[in-house]
Amino acid sequence: MSMLTPPGMGGKYRITGNKYPRMRRPRRHGRLVVLVVSSAAVLGVGGWGTLQLIDVFTGGGRKASAAADGTDCAPTTKASPSPSPSAKPLPEPRTITVNVLNATTRSGLAKKTADELKKRGFKIGDVGNAPKEYDKKVKGAGMLLGPAAALDTSLPVLGTQLPGAERRTEAAREGDAVDLVIGDTFKTLAKQPDADRALTKLASPEPAPTSKKGC
């Protein structure tokens, strides 16, 4: 029997050898795992709460509410109302009398231009050379002259045939006729399809879009 065996003990309790066995504490792996999982859960909950606070102070809550309601703050484009039906309608070409006057040194332009305007439905008045005050003094393609009342009626309609022409009114002028004075850079009237499109757009302008925020 070994000297390490207590008296009266033997069999399976017998201790052999000359050293006492080293007594170790049981490892606590399970407790450590539980501690790690609990810490991670606490950190996750704390981080989620922090994000919620950030959203509240930065407006994230409003975005979530808007998404839930199916609305957003993006600007919406809305067409402005069409012109009032009470607005004065533009005259038709057949009701406009045009005097075609040549202010250049090139001959035959007044007659040729008057014939083309007649084909397009305008009434033709005087055809010939421009008066002295305009003769050889119109530097652009042409000039449109008329009474004050023609500024927003006859002159815009005639202007569809010669885009870019200068428009002037004479307060003391009588009658409804308007003048087309041919200038130095004049080549020809606008092509009829282009003039027709411009006339249609002038008579029925498209409503201008306006932006409005949704919230």
Structure description:
This protein has helices at residues 29-58, 60-69, 109-119, 154-159, 192-203, and strands spanning 75-79, 97-102, 123-129, 142-147, 166-170, 178-182, 209-213. It is α/β, with parallel strands linked by helices. The model is unreliable at 80-86 (pLDDT under 50). Residues 95-186 form the LytR/CpsA/Psr regulator C-terminal domain. It comes from Streptomyces venetus. Residues 1-22, 65-93, 195-215 are annotated as: Disordered.
Largest beta sheet: strand ordering: 3-2-6-4-5
Cα radius of gyration in angstroms:
48 Å
Residue stretches low in confidence (pLDDT < 50, at least 5 long) are 80-86
End-to-end distance: 95 Å
Number of helices: 5
* Content of β-strand: 15-25%
**Helix-strand string:** HHEEHEEHEEHE
**Global morphology:** elongated
Strand-helix topology:
Blueprint: H1 29-58, H2 60-69, E1 75-79, E2 97-102, H3 109-119, E3 123-129, E4 142-147, H4 154-159, E5 166-170, E6 178-182, H5 192-203, E7 209-213
Parallel strand pairs: 2-3, 2-6, 4-5
Antiparallel strand pairs: 1-7, 4-6
In summary, what is this structure?
The protein has helices at residues 29-58, 60-69, 109-119, 154-159, 192-203, and strands at residues 75-79, 97-102, 123-129, 142-147, 166-170, 178-182, 209-213. It is an alpha/beta fold and 215 residues long.
Q: Could you list some keywords that capture this structure?
A:
single chain, 215 residues, alpha/beta, five-stranded mixed β-sheet, two-stranded antiparallel ribbon
